[in-house]
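To whoever is covering the structure queue this week,

Two jobs came back overnight. Logging them here so there's a record in the thread.

Job A:
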Amino acid sequence: MILSMDEIVNAICLHMAERKDVQPTDVLVELSWDEDTGYTAEVTINGRSQYLIEANMIEAIMRYLYTEYGIRAYREQVTLDLDEEIIAIVNV
């Protein structure tokens, strides 16, 4: 199973909205990849920004897979990859 960049952004929005007790529409997410830092997401909520590292992004994806698809994926089954955009590959 492959999750598109839009689905990854949705996963992070839902995850952060629940953690910060805000609406998912209040969460802005920008994904990026850099040789030095790897995959990161800049999350902005109510004007405050924070960066998520790859492990945090995968945690959000795992939660999204369970709540949206009923798939219980483990950390080892989810990898991020760079195609024309950032995608998540889920081996279930």
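Job B:
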Amino acid sequence: MKNEVGDSIANKVYEHRVLAKLTQAELGKAVGVSKQTIFVMEKGNYVPSLLLAFRIADFFKVEIGDIFTYVKGMDEK
């Protein structure tokens, strides 16, 4: 997701899911969302809520910062 100043959230959901040998549907079911939500999140087209981000990190037993990273954009002038 990007806003007007170019900030975004990068994620490593795909990497963690593949290492765990899970399908998008399996991960979605485990954290309470659809397969489509996991798909668009992995593609970088959806930023999860804070609650969902914590659920995903908890599921993989990692810190939230191991999966989600804030990427600061350039300020518009």
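Note for Job B: The chain has a mean pLDDT of 91.

Please reply-all if you pick these up so we don't duplicate work.
Q.
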